Amino acid sequence: MMHTITVIDLKKHLDKHLKDVIDNSTPLLVRTDDTNDVVILSIKDYDALVETIKISTNTQLIRKIKRGDAQINATISSNTSN
Predict the structure, then answer these.
(1) The sheet that has 28-31: what strands, in order across it?
(2) Percent of the chain having pLDDT more than 90?
(3) Topology (CATH level 3) of domain 1-41
(4) SS3 of 12, please?
(5) How far is CA 56 from CA 20, 35, 52, 67, 71, in A?
């Protein structure tokens, strides 16, 4: 679950909020006075998000994953029927 804070709270408790984002993999939504809100992510979570986007937009890789998944399911099915 993403926590929401104000810019003022972020400034007052920056160390605490950054530690929480890093330690708990919890994104932090920072509300600004205008509509330019910001999300803070740990680098680990950011990298995972970018990797997920790359994989999900690579149609060739998705086909290979689906083919491998089908092979695994077929193997499991044949092993349970024996």
Answers:
(1) 3-6, 28-31, 38-40
(2) 82
(3) YefM-like fold (3.40.1620)
(4) helix
(5) 28, 29, 6, 15, 20
- The whole-angstrom distance between residue 32's C-alpha and the CA centroid of its chain comes to 23
Q: CA 51, 52, 57, 60 torsion: positive or negative?
A: positive
Would you state the pLDDT for residue 78? 82
DSSP 57: T
Measured CA to CA, the distance from residue 22 to residue 36 in angstroms comes to 23
61 within 8 A of 55, measured Cβ to Cβ: yes
**Smallest Cα–Cα separation from 17: which of 36, 48, 50, 39?**
39
H-type alpha helices, the chain: 7-12, 14-24, 43-56, 59-80
Residue 80 is predicted with a pLDDT of 78
Give the residues across from 6 on adjacent strands.
31
